Amino acid sequence: MGFHVCSQALSSAPIHHQFRYIHSISRGVRRAGVSNLRAMQQEEELKPPGRVRVPHVLTVAGSDSGAGAGIQADMKACAARGVYCSTVVTAVTAQNTVGVQGVNIVTEEFVREQLKSVLSDMRPDVVKTGMLPSPGIVKVLCQSLKEFQVGALVVDPVMVSTSGDVLAGSSVLASFREELLPLADIVTPNLREASALLGGAPLETVADMHSAAKSIHNIGPRNVLVKGGDLPSSSDAVDVLFDGKEFYEFRSTRVNTSNTHGTGCTLASSIAAELARGSSVLSAIKIAKHYVESALDYSKDILIGGGHQGPFDHLMKLKNSAPDLCARRLFSPNDLLLYAVTDSRMNKKWGRSMRDAVKSAIEGGATIVQLREKDADTRDFLEAAKTCVEICRSHGVPLLINDRIDIALACDADGVHVGQSDMPARVARTILGPDKIIGVSCKTPEQAEKAWIDGADYIGCGGVYPTNTKENNLTVGLDGLKTVCLESKLPVVAIGGFGISNVRPVMELGVPNLKGVAVVSALFDRESVSTETQNLLKVIIGST
Ligand SMILES: Cc1ncc(COP(=O)(O)OP(=O)(O)O)c(N)n1
Ligand SMILES: Cc1ncsc1CCOP(=O)(O)O
Ligand SMILES: [Mg+2]
């Protein structure tokens, strides 16, 4: 059993969400973070032409009139992460920064009706639960989760508010243990909730958190995140994840503020939002924690209400960078579906400008673009890259620069792709900050692990098949690709020798982390880039 410490220097996950996906089915609900290409293809097939799917979280929780926690926090957190959020209200609370003045529980019949309305029509990717005030409501929820094909399930086992008021009595505990937790892909108890789920023994150390995570895992959820924010003995905030095999510790510096009302709801819904965008459970937690910490830090001095537990500002980014947010799509692992990588020599051979190459690839349906210009002069490269940024941004397609961090910064590209002998990803992350996309070339699970630790957003694995595009490049084959994908905590795009005739076996590998293929010559060493891109996309989408 291994043990990992995860740094919090994190990538936000810039994404565009053209492709929603279905999770593979397990125990009535589908598994979290296990989107696969086939599922994305199925979704794409069902989508009417010209319509764009958005990632979607359904929150089943209570309303907080003060809007710091509950349904209101969930909606704001999802909005901040670019994810649609529908709602099933289980209770209406009269609540402010002082405490909870009243609770009005919604009837089981009406909770069932709300669930049916959303689940039968809107097909959320992920269901996130918060306040479930009665065993009857837990039962209704579990029945609905089994009746409708829902996405992954994130359970925040809310029992007590930040002010100490009881939101779900001890009668609900048994229902959590017996009915809901066995369906959950991840459950996120704080210390008190973890203790309550396990019969009441207090948790006082990180070691206690480890054993609690393991014991709760035995109840049935696939992943358990025990949040140690209230641990008296630590100066850092430590959360412990157990996935059934390994323990992970997420450490972050405590933000000195009393504006913490709703952090639990916000963390759980941010995790749900990242899962809906195609992240693995580990990535989702890392990104969600980074988001919550940034929001807490941004809001540490705001004043709302006279009580001890103020809310924080979920949408702080809108104030700082509204134009930026509007212009730039956030990155999603699903963007990697058809990754077009330009080549200066091929452009020269076909008499094409970088701009025309990029424009045609986008017209053909490329979902992300990388400028890989090995020969261009820096000044020419920068000018062309600026134009390409404009084109990509106007189409909502992320644009990355190969190798050249300086060019990426100067043209405000969405990120970079670096190899094992380029600028280390850790340094690139420090230079580029949390909001840029960083991809790293990896041939082995060890390199993939390092990329994750260094704060990359995805890895490019290859060359898979032999290629003339990159000299002296050892091939890893489909087996090597599969090994890396199975071990990687980051989404993977396969690269090397791909074209219409051989892309199918990759699509059929069936490994959840593999999100798409990156292609150079089969798109750019051809007369019509847009036609080739379109035809390849059809095969990717149409593969069975
Ligand atoms: C998506 C993607 N994956 C891998 C590579 C290769 O990058 P690198 O190993 O740095 O080699 P060069 O492309 O720089 O020759 C890539 N470019 N894109
Ligand atoms: C850049 C790179 N890295 C590994 S293989 C490769 C080249 C892929 O090019 P092609 O798609 O033409 O085989
Ligand atoms: Mg390189």
Unique bound compounds = the ligand Cc1ncc(COP(=O)(O)OP(=O)(O)O)c(N)n1, 4-methyl-5-hydroxyethylthiazole phosphate, magnesium ion
Largest sheet strand order: 1-12-11-10-9-8-7-4-5-6
Characterize the main sheet. 10 strands, mixed
- Architecture of the largest domain in CATH? 3-Layer(aba) Sandwich
Using the coordinates above, name the CATH class of the largest domain: Alpha Beta
What topology emerges from the helices and strands here?
Layout: E1 3-6, E2 25-26, E3 29-30, H1 37-46, E4 56-64, H2 70-80, E5 84-95, E6 100-105, H3 108-121, E7 126-129, H4 135-147, E8 152-155, H5 170-180, E9 186-187, H6 191-197, H7 206-219, E10 223-227, E11 236-242, E12 247-253, H8 263-276, H9 281-298, H10 316-327, E13 338-341, H11 344-349, H12 354-364, E14 368-371, H13 378-395, E15 399-402, H14 405-411, E16 415-418, H15 425-432, E17 437-442, H16 445-453, E18 458-462, H17 477-487, E19 492-495, H18 504-507, E20 514-519, H19 521-524, H20 529-542
Description:
This protein is an alpha/beta fold. It has two domains: 3-7 and 21-326, Ribokinase (UDP-N-acetylmuramoyl-L-alanine:D-glutamate ligase, 3-Layer(aba) Sandwich), CATH 3.40.1190.20; 333-542, Aldolase class I (TIM Barrel, Alpha-Beta Barrel), CATH 3.20.20. It has 20 helices and 20 strands. The protein has helices spanning 37-46, 70-80, 108-121, 135-147, 170-180, 191-197, 206-219, 263-276, 281-298, 316-327, 344-349, 354-364, 378-395, 405-411, 425-432, 445-453, 477-487, 504-507, 521-524, 529-542; strands spanning 3-6, 25-26, 29-30, 56-64, 84-95, 100-105, 126-129, 152-155, 186-187, 223-227, 236-242, 247-253, 338-341, 368-371, 399-402, 415-418, 437-442, 458-462, 492-495, 514-519. Strands 1-12-11-10-9-8-7-4-5-6 form a ten-stranded mixed beta sheet, with helices on both faces. Strands 13-14-15-16-17-18-19-20 form an eight-stranded parallel barrel, surrounded by seven helices. Helix 15 links the parallel strand 16 (415-418) and strand 17. The two termini are 36 Å apart. The model is unreliable at 6-38 and 322-328 (pLDDT under 50). Its cofactor is Mg(2+). It holds the Pfam family Phos_pyr_kin. One of its GO terms (biological process) is thiamine diphosphate biosynthetic process.
